[in-house]
Amino acid sequence: MALSDPQIQALARDAMQRATAGDFVGAEPLLAQIVEARPNSGQALHLLGQARLKLGRFAEAREPLERAAKFLPKEAAAQVNLAGCLVHLGEHAGALAALDRATQLKPGDAAIAHNRGRALEALGRADDAERAYDEALAIDHRLMASLSARANLLAARGEWVGALNDLETALTERPGDPHLRLRRGELLLRQGDWLRGLPDHEARLELPTERYRPDLPHWQGQPLAGRLLIYPEQADIDGDAAVRDALMLARGIDAVLQCSAKVAAWLDRPTMRRGEPLDGFAAAAPLRSLPYLLGWTLETLPPPAAGWPKPVSADRVGWFAAAEPPPGVSVERNPEQVASCRLVVGDDAPPVHLAALLGIPAILLAPRADWPWGPRSGPSPWYASLEVWHALDSETLAARLARC
Question: Residue 81: its pLDDT value, please?
Fold first, then answer.
C-alpha cells in the first residue's frame, strides 16, 4: 500500500531520531521504506546509503549512494559518501572520479583533498597522491591524516627528514598519540638512532592489539625481589616472529625466557612454556623492550645466548630466502638441517638466527629489514658469524657462495 505524505514524514522523523542517537539498525529499515515509496528522492537515498555505510553494509550502500549522487549533482557530500563506499569495495578508480566531482563542487576542502590522496595512493600513483596530501596540508597544515600519510610516502622513498618533520608536526597537536609516536620511533630506529627511537617504540604497548602479556607487573628496569620473566609479545609463540625474537633478543640479562619448546631445545638458558605457573616471578618484560630498558646500542650489544646443537661439517648451503639461489648451488631447505650446513642464507627468519647463534656463517637478505638490524650492510653486531645485506646483488652472492 502506498504511503501518504504524513506517513512518510512520520517515518522520516523517526528515522532521523534513531540515526541521531546512533541507532542505525533501527533507522535503516525506516529509510528503506521511504526510498521504496519515493524512489527518486535524492535525500532519502543519500540517508539510506549513509545508514548502510555506518552498519558496514558497503555492497548494499552502493546502489542508493550512486543514485543519490545522480539526483543530488550539486551536493559534494553525496559524492564524498559514494567515494567512501567505493573505497571499501576496492573500487579506487570510481572513488577518485567521485572525489574529483566533489572537488569541483567544493574546492579548497582539506578532507576531500586528503581522500583523493588515499585513492591515488591505492591506485599506485604515489607522486599524485603526495601532491594531493600537499594540497590538503596547504589548506589545513595540521591535518593528522595527511601528515601521517605523507610521512609514509616520504619514508618509502627514503626521505627520512621530511617524513620525521611531518610526524613532529602531527605530534605537536597530539603529543601523546601512540600511533604517531610509534611511527616516529620506527623511522628513527631504521636510521640507527636508538637513543631517540627506543622510547617512542614503547608506544606499541599502549595500542589495543592481540599482543600477549603475562599477568605480572611490567618491569621498568628496577631491582627485583623475585625472578624476572622475559617473553615474546606475539600472540603466536610458535610463529616465526616470536621464535626470531627469542633467539635474537634473549641476551644480556639474568631472566627466565618464556618461549616455545623448539626454542628451549636450542638455547642453553633457563626457559619455561607459556601457560606454566608464574609463581616466584616479580615482574615481566617483552623481549622487544630490552634494548630500551637495558640501554643497548648497536655498538654495545651483549653477546647472544649459547646454543645447544653442535654444527657438523657439510657441503650444502642452507637456503631460506624467498629469492631463488644462484644456479648450480646445492642447497638445503629443511630448517631441521641448519646445523649441518656450511653456510646459511635467508630472510629474517628463525633458520638464519639459529645458524648465526651456532656460529655457522650466515647471510641475512634484508631489503626491508626490521629495525634491530640497523641501516648498514656488512658484519652484524648481533652475531659474530652473520652478514646483513640490505640489497641483493646476485653476482656478488654467487661469488660469496663459491668462496665458502
Answer: 96
Model pTM?
Answer: 0.80
Ordered DSSP codes for 5-49: HHHHHHHHHHHHHHHHTT-HHHHHHHHHHHHHH-TT-HHHHHHHH
pLDDT digits (tens, 9 = 90+) for 10-44: 988 998 999 899 999 999 999 999 999 999 999 99
Residue 9's CB is within 10 A of a number of other CB atoms, namely 12
Whether 297 contacts 323, CB under 8 Å: no
* CATH number 1.10.10.60 given to 5-204: no
pLDDT digits 0-9 by tens, 116-170 = 999 999 999 999 999 999 999 999 988 999 999 999 999 988 899 999 999 999 9
CB 198 within 8 A of CB 190: no
In this structure, are residues 360 and 338 in contact, taking their beta carbons and an 8 Å threshold?
yes
CA distance 356 to 334: 16
Q: Domains of the chain: which residue ranges?
A: 5-204, 212-308, 317-403
Residues 310-319: tens digit of each pLDDT: 666 677 889 9
State the maximum Cα–Cα separation within the chain, in Å, rounded to a whole number: 89
CA pair distance 27, 253, nearest whole angstrom: 59
Q: Do 145 and 167 form a contact (C-beta atoms < 8 A)?
A: no
**For residue 68, which of 59, 57, 60, 77 has the smallest C-alpha distance?**
77
